[in-house]
Give the backbone structure.
Amino acid sequence: MKVTVGDKTVDEFGIELAPAAPSFWTFLDMEKYQGQQATIDVDRLPSDSQGLTQVRQDDEVPGAATLYQEKYRPQFHFSPRVGWNNDPNGLVYYKGEWHLYFQHNPYGWKWGNMHWGHAVSRDLAHWTELPIAIYPYKFDDWVFSGGAVVDKDNTAGFKSGAEDVIVASYTSTGRGEAIAYSNDRGRTFTDYEANPVVKHQGRDPKIIWYAPGRHWVMAVYDEEGTGEPVKRQIAFYTSTDLKAWTLQSKLDGYFECPEIFPLRADGNTKGAERWVVYAADGAYQVGTFDGKTFTPDEPEKQRFNWGTASTLHKPTATFRPTTDGASRSPGARSGIRRCRSISR
């Protein structure tokens, strides 16, 4: 299905239109196009389908008042109103708000049509879902996982108002590693016109500020080779402006959604600083990091947890910066419906 207003494609996606009465509704936010004519194109439908006849305009999401009263709806964990969600993305704290972006298919019950959904919280327990933050560049060029930072010094030059710029980094599946920027507290994003900023075989960029070197660091999952076995690793890039990146080193043995952050030994804020690296397999290493290369203390990785939970928990990102300098990691847990939880 493709929705256009004038010559602009609002969104294009795959969807399973119900042939008769739908079991649930999905929606596309058209608020900023009020008063304009929209066109819906569908490539094919069964001849007896009633799917298009049920597409309608409305000021409210049908059934919204009772969505969170569903029998199997999580109450403690975050879940979007409709659709499918997975990896937490772009976890960032700014002016009293925790931002949770996430992998999201807003038009169906299974993986696909990857957008960045968005929710905010002031206490990490109560969340308000906001409109889609990042839409795909075009059909089949999906918005995969990544991170977000507050560019308080405007190193990228994207700032246009009073608010600090939030810069998101993500994998554009048709282009490479991309960035987008927001001047309205993370509500809407503008795609950087010179994307991709890194082109390689991999995905899932995480960017942090490395203060001693006064530069940004991108940790990104990287593959070398074709067929099996593929060499899997984390690649570390550096940049002073979030636009031009230089490859510095690679760390073998990690798969998808890399994370890197510093911790003080024994919880002492004045203690020796160590760095933690982990990825989506739920294993980690502790070591040192000079802004370009991570050197592990021990050659073997350690697991976060053991037992069946290790196959269900996919830690993918931490909130940075936080109010107390700590790292907090939400995970994606499998079940009746994908949901979010916060580890402490």
